[in-house]
Model the fold of this input.
Amino acid sequence: MNDRPHRLARVVVITRPTPLEQLIARYGTYAQAKFILASTGESIDWYEATHERLELGLGRSLQGIPQDRPYTRVERHDLDRFLFSADDLVMIVGQDGLVANVAKYLDGQYTIGVNPDPERYDGVLCRHAPEHVAALTANALEGDPRWRIEARTLAEARCDDGQRLLALNEIFIGHISHQSARYRLRAGAVEERHSSSGVIVSTGSGASGWARSIVQQRGLDLDLPEVDEARLTWFVREPWPSVATAASLDVGIVDANTPLDIASEMSEGGVIFADGIESDRIDFVSGRRVQLHVAERRLNLVVPAS
Done:
């Protein structure tokens, strides 16, 4: 009989700097930040009040973690250097966008989103209040009727040179500036040469944002995917028909049987980035090809059962 105590999985708490901390980092000191704001007629009071609310929410969240359960804190800018364990319980304290930032680094770990400031954040992905943390981290989550696991679909862009990006919401393929993106797009057996403002590939999580806006603007009768559905939607932004380019392939579905392939015809400035993070981009210039499909990984988001 094994009498060794069961090791509680580590809780990884992920945060990002508050607006006040970002302001101080930009200008060097609190006094300098306050002076710069005052010189433009703006007060630092909002930054201070927001900082206090976020710190209070974070503090209450940390207090909820059982004392016998190991935990570590990671800032968003350190995620690319942090090594997650397979059994980590990931707790994201902040805005919904932070969940999208973290998702691409995870591989099946249960993820809890905590909203530290309901006055500032909607809480679409960070649905839990700090007061829920004690119950969420006290025991195993499986079988607890208070919660359920929402296995959210991720999109993947895989280039022919092996580079890839994962996205919880959407992937953008286009030109880094306001210039037109030029490429060849193949959906199923049909291919067109395009000049457009780029291509957006959206998951069900992203369907409430950019994708829904496009559907409503165009008046499309398109069934957008659910957050856990193995299906993506894609849209071409402002395709320009000409003697050399077409515009009939401007919307479609990506599923297990229908990937989307794009070949760049941009000599410079072509990019692919995920969830709006342009700094973490893949250069997509002439000679490069990318395939967009549903990723094998899922984001296992812990949400209230009702």
Notes: The chain has a mean pLDDT of 93. The chain is about 20% helix and 30% strand. The chain has two domains: 11-144, 153-295. The CA atoms of residues 212 and 224 lie 8 Å apart.
